[in-house]
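Hi all, posting the design record for the shared folder.

TITLE: backbone redesign
STEP: 1 of 1
STRUCTURE INPUT:
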């Protein structure tokens, strides 16, 4: 009988067939009632309907549905009583979602590079987006506005990861003089006319401050453009994408110290120094470097790794110093040199402009590695390839060999 304060539990009805359906094995009515009674349950057997009405004790708040009762039955009787049977059909083949795997790889790599992941809000204010341009201009295409925003600072769906990431960098920079490395990997919402925004997974990373910890071995240097470029380049190389870095005109970045990242004929990202005025907008003093990658654009470009045996024959290394117009880029030189199959590696080791170099010119010096997998190259063969490289550089870029 019920009394004030007593918990009244409703009966849960089960049958022998229900138990068999869930467990794949048949237990008798006696086995079922004995197991449940041992746990403090009250069992009422309806022989006419072949049902058992189970009333759980007041302390078993986890008894709510049939499956809870059946789980308790097999736990008491013993899981070993369930016979082992093979699957009637093969396990369906797994079809992983490519973007999820890519995001996992990218996250692991960024952490390996010493970055800390930030998870920022998907909402933003129009003022924050305006700060991304030196003249604080509003976006050309308005982002999607929420009907019921939680505050005026989170009124729109973000179209870029940069504002929230730069705000977080500024806050942390005011408390620490150490090097800071942050990244955010999330969706941005690109507005479309008369339609919902296009959701794109983006990676954005920022670095600032010291390159390494202070040490008695020497002064700690600060990060520069090539730290950010190297991280983006290394990340892409890890997933099998050979990227190019070309001139760009991103308004958020320094007019000179920036480059768009391309692969094939498609732009997949950008890297550069934050524009000084934009840095002031976000109260992030000093030099800040930023890189951004469009993850869906990377998916069709990813190549599987190719393993090759270690070369049996020695390599030949030659150095060349070229004099070129100041407007000629390192990438243009690399594109020409890499067309020669005997050249297996190219490294730029010196850039110089000044005395003994004509005005409007610069000198780029390279290590060239010549090698083949099936024979040792002779000096005559290497000389011939080197002369062909110099001839092509001279005809296409106006390069000359520096004395």
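Okay, here is what came back for every position:
SEQUENCE:
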């Amino acid at each position: 009988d019920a009394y004030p304060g007593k918990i009244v539990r409703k009966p849960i009805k089960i049958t022998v067939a229900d138990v068999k359906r869930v467990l794949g094995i048949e237990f008798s009515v006696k086995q079922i009632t004995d197991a449940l009674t041992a746990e403090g349950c009250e069992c009422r057997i309806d022989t006419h309907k072949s049902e058992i009405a189970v009333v759980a004790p007041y302390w078993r708040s986890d008894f709510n549905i049939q499956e809870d009762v059946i789980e308790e039955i097999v736990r008491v009787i013993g899981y070993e009583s369930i016979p082992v049977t093979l699957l009637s059909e093969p396990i369906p083949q797994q079809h992983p979602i490519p973007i999820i795997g890519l995001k996992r790889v990218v996250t692991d790599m960024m952490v390996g590079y010493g970055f800390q992941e930030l998870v920022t809000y998907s909402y933003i204010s129009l003022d924050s987006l305006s700060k991304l341009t030196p003249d604080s201009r509003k976006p050309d295409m308005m982002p999607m506005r929420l009907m019921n925003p939680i505050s005026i600072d989170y009124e729109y769906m973000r179209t870029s990861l940069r504002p929230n990431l730069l705000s977080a960098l500024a806050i942390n920079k005011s408390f620490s003089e150490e090097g800071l490395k942050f990244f955010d990997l999330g969706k941005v919402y690109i507005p479309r006319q008369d339609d919902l925004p296009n959701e794109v997974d983006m990676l954005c990373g920022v670095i600032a401050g010291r390159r390494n910890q202070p040490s008695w071995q020497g002064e700690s240097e600060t990060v520069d453009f090539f730290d950010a470029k190297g991280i983006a380049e290394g990340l892409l190389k890890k997933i099998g994408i050979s990227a190019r870095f070309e001139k760009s005109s991103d308004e958020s970045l320094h007019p000179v110290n920036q480059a768009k990242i391309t692969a094939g004929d498609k732009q997949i990202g950008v890297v550069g120094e934050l524009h000084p005025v934009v840095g002031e907008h976000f109260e992030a003093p000093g030099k800040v470097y930023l890189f951004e990658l469009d993850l869906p654009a990377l998916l069709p470009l990813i190549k599987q790794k190719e393993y090759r045996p270690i070369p049996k024959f020695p390599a030949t290394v030659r150095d060349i110093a070229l004099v070129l117009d100041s407007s000629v880029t390192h990438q243009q030189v690399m594109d020409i040199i890499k067309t020669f199959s005997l050249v297996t590696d190219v490294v730029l080791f010196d850039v110089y402009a000044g005395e003994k170099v004509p005005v409007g010119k610069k000198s780029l010096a390279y290590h060239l590695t010549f090698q083949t997998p099936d024979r040792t190259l002779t000096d005559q063969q290497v000389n011939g390839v080197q002369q062909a490289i110099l001839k092509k550089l001279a005809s296409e870029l106006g390069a000359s060999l520096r004395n």
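COMMENT: Residues 202 and 294 are 5 Å apart (CA to CA).
Let me know if anyone wants the other runs.
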